[in-house]
Structure formats: C-alpha cells, structure tokens
Amino acid sequence: MNLVETLNEQYMKKELPELNVGDTVRVTVRVKEGNRERTQAFEGTLIAKKHGGITETITVRRISYNVGCEKVFPIHSPTIVSIETVRKGKVRRAKLYYLRDRVGKAAKVKERL
Q: pTM of the prediction?
C-alpha cells in the first residue's frame, strides 16, 4: 500500500453518520479563543458534498436573522467534534445551490419519511 494512503487511513474518522444532500445536520465544532476552548453547534441544510477520502467536505447552509450563512466543513478534521443528522431531506439533485436564491418557505426541503 502507498505511504500516502496509509497516512490517510490513519487520520480518517471511523464513526460517521450517513450524510446525504438535503439532510438537516448539526455539526459541532471545537472553537479555540485565546487559551480557552469551547464547542459550538452549526445546524443547517446540507447543500453539497465534495471530494472523497480524507479531503471530503460538506457545505452546510442556514438562515439566521434573515441572512444566509454557509460554512464548508472538512468532515475528517480534528476540530469537528460530531456530526448528527436532525432530519432526512427528500431531494433529486446532488447539489442544492438553487436554495441560495430562495427565501422563506421556498427554501424548505421536504422530509423523507
């Protein structure tokens, strides 16, 4: 096996939930402020998954105070404490970039039962 592949396997997280585009997820991140450390949750709709392996990232979008906010999280990063699925979404696309132009109820994703 290649040396790079060995290192990648070593740092990849084993326990990850099933993440699909359209799901509402809660990502808990370890934030360092000065010499203190705390955890902060970011909950929103998963609008994109990119790459694979150790470089896999997810893009999560949420609306707070009528302003859209997107964050890209590398899922195998040591700063990510946990990722949990809040609700499943029913979508027919791989990327939900069209939600950027939608406001209010039009920006909702149907729930998969």
A: 0.91
